[in-house]
Inverse folding.
């Protein structure tokens, strides 16, 4: 999502920023693990981005720019504080296929989703955010590097370590569940 060389106006900002609202909220929700805090974070991100929009460099990646603002705002709000683990609400709806699965299949799928969600929540923020940007937001390594202000090599190594940590979390949770 690159911005052409043009005058940066509030209308241009709205045109670029509003389609990203749901994605930014989702990312904020995962980072904060709290609905109200995520809403505040997104609101503050949009306010900061709008104020700083005149300094945005046309020809660069707007999506990475606004994600970086959200991330920096989140990290600033956490300065020195450990984030409390709050379970996500059941607001993510699962669409059922045309052929309705058995209640047992639904229960197994939900328990697997909960297991993955719990494992993600237990990861440190820097691992959680890189997994979300790559796997959920489907950003390229280049976009992630721009968002996090790190080299691509760091993105790749951090992503590898995050996947390993998630795998270890899942193994640990599965082991304690069946052990």
């Amino acid at each position: 999502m690159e911005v052409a060389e043009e005058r940066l106006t509030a209308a241009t900002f709205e045109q670029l920023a509003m389609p990203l609202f749901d994605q930014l909220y989702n990312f904020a929700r995962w980072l904060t693990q709290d609905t109200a805090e995520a809403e505040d974070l997104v609101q503050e991100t949009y306010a900061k981005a709008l104020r700083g929009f005149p300094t945005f460099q046309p020809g660069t990646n707007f999506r990475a720019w606004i994600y970086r603002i959200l991330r920096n705002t989140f990290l600033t709000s956490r300065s020195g504080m450990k984030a409390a683990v709050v379970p996500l609400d059941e607001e993510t709806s699962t669409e059922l296929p045309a052929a309705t699965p058995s209640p047992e299949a639904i229960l197994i799928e939900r328990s697997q989703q909960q297991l993955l969600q719990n494992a993600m929540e237990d990861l440190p923020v820097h691992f959680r955010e890189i997994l979300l940007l790559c796997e959920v937001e489907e950003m390229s390594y280049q976009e992630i590097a721009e968002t996090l202000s790190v080299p691509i090599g760091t993105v790749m190594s951090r992503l590898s370590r995050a996947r390993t940590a998630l795998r270890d979390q899942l193994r640990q949770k599965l082991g304690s569940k069946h052990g």
Observations:
- Residues 80-98 have pLDDT under 50 and may be disordered.
- Residues 152-178 form the longest helix (27 residues).
- The chain has eight helices and no strands.
